[in-house]
Write a structure and sequence with these properties.
3 strands; 169 residues; mainly alpha; globular; three-stranded antiparallel sheet
Length: 169
């Protein structure tokens, strides 16, 4: 089978209906993307947990809150900012609240809304975790890639993000 025909070997009956299956090259790239990104995320997460006691979920919440005035935002905005379902966020915030990292308050002017605030302990934990976390990202993700590879990867991810955004519209 030629390279062109082997790239189309996965099309099958769907191709006749106008839908085209991924080529073998596209599937290899997809698999490399999935396997490598999962392995990199897991390695960074393990280092974050080992060095700071924080999960990647904790850190995502803390980053979003830390960047806000008074380290505070409405729970609905926080869920959107970190791309989590509200129920997932609510359960996670309960665990963080028990550990003294965040506090919940009734939103000003809206008794139904909740305002999430990073506590002093939470801000301290975030600052303490940030430097080791950034070093882990450099060691695990950035160091093995050249500047050119990082630029190409960033460009590819921006294209993919723009495409995904267009699918939501």
């Amino acid at each position: 089978m030629s390279e062109v025909s082997s790239d189309r070997a996965l099309d099958g009956p769907a191709a006749a209906s106008g839908r085209r299956s991924p080529t073998a090259n596209e599937l290899r790239a997809w698999r490399a993307f999935i396997e490598t990104s999962e392995a990199a995320k897991q390695s960074v997460a393990l280092r974050l947990q080992a060095e700071s006691g924080l999960s990647t979920g904790d850190y995502a919440v803390m980053v979003a809150l830390y960047d806000q005035p008074e380290h505070s935002m409405r729970s609905s905005q926080l869920a959107e900012a970190i791309s989590w379902e509200r129920s997932r966020l609510s359960h996670h915030l309960a665990r963080m609240e028990r550990r003294g990292l965040v506090s919940r308050h009734t939103a000003a002017g809206d008794k139904r809304g909740a305002e999430i605030r990073l506590t002093a302990e939470g801000a301290h934990s975030y600052r303490r975790a940030s430097s080791p976390h950034l070093h882990a990202i450099r060691d695990i993700f950035a160091a093995p890639l050249s500047a050119v590879q990082l630029n190409v990867l960033e460009d590819a991810m921006r294209s993919l993000a723009a495409h995904l955004e267009s699918l939501r519209s």
